[in-house]
Amino acid sequence: MQKIETRYTHSPEDIKHYSTEELRREFLVEKVFVPGEITLTYTHNDRMIFGGVTPTTEALEIVLTSELGVDYFLERRELGVINIGGTGTIEIDGKKESMKKQDGYYIGKETKQVIFSSDDPEQPAKFYISCVPAHKKYPNVKISIDQIQPMETGNGDTLNERKIYQYIHPNVCESCQLQMGYTILEPGSAWNTMPCHTHERRMEAYVYFDYANEDTRVFHMMGKPDETKHLVVDQEQAVISPSWSIHSGIGTSNYSFIWAMCGENITYTDMDMVAMEELK
């Protein structure tokens, strides 16, 4: 089964008077991984499609044609995949690759067929995907976390010691506009991306997971720097972050998240830093 939900764009003025329920309805995706299903969100923020593919007893294939005005899903798009579940397989135009937890893949435009399956239905793979418009075909590349030299940043004194693994990034593989990576907070750390920033030239989507325990929650900070709001995010839920919004989080314990960006460029450091005294 495949489900896709459309989310529309918002001005900062739109959310000033949103209730908690309204804010969650517009920016939080509560169900990303559903066993045996493909669950996608199509945001009009830079036309990103993101979500979860969770095969169990049967293989799953994303089929989007009329929704995108194309003959096949990746006719005009590129795709990033990272597995955060059990071992599975990804078949790309007939070529099969095993995908253990933390394995990723960049799949270029004009790829006709991508099929996802799990080795064990009781411990299914959880393929998190991000898909954005593309103007050029770049080679498909498998990316393992073992091949990536992480950026180690933060420290224990400020509760933000973490490792950032850049999967789809110019240092690793070519892409048109998609960037995608995996951040892991060290035990005892709970803040990510603080001091915070915005990037007017790119939007971003986060999925939070690998919580330390079932009671862990992440408070995702969003909004204009001088008028911040928050979302309380449970395990394996996702958040849409418009280009004008900060995107930072504090957890009740450590956790991991996947970030994906698209927009005007693929310069990871192109961001507008926010001084702490500007936050309100």
Automatic annotation (TrEMBL):
UniProt entry tagged with the keyword Isomerase: yes
UniProt EC number: 5.3.1.17
Keyword Zinc: yes
Gene3D superfamilies listed in its UniProt record: Jelly Rolls, pectin degrading enzyme 5-keto 4- deoxyuronate isomerase, domain 1
Entry's transmembrane regions: none
Cofactors demanded by this protein: Zn(2+)
InterPro entries: KduI, KduI/IolB_isomerase, KduI_N, RmlC-like_jellyroll, RmlC_Cupin_sf
Pathway membership: Glycan metabolism; pectin degradation; 2-dehydro-3-deoxy-D-gluconate from pectin: step 4/5
Binding site for Zn(2+): H197, H199, E204, H247
Domain of life, source organism: Bacteria
One GO MF term attached to the UniProt entry: zinc ion binding
Catalysed conversion reaction: 5-dehydro-4-deoxy-D-glucuronate = 3-deoxy-D-glycero-2,5-hexodiulosonate
Single biological process term from Gene Ontology: pectin catabolic process
EC primary class: isomerase
Cofactor: how bound: Binds 1 zinc ion per subunit.
Alphabetic keyword roster: Isomerase, Metal-binding, Zinc
Record-linked PANTHER family: 4-DEOXY-L-THREO-5-HEXOSULOSE-URONATE KETOL-ISOMERASE (PTHR38461)
Family statement drawn from the similarity comment of this UniProt entry: Belongs to the KduI family.
Function: Catalyzes the isomerization of 5-dehydro-4-deoxy-D-glucuronate to 3-deoxy-D-glycero-2,5-hexodiulosonate.
Name under which the protein is recorded: 4-deoxy-L-threo-5-hexosulose-uronate ketol-isomerase
Species this protein is from: Enterococcus florum
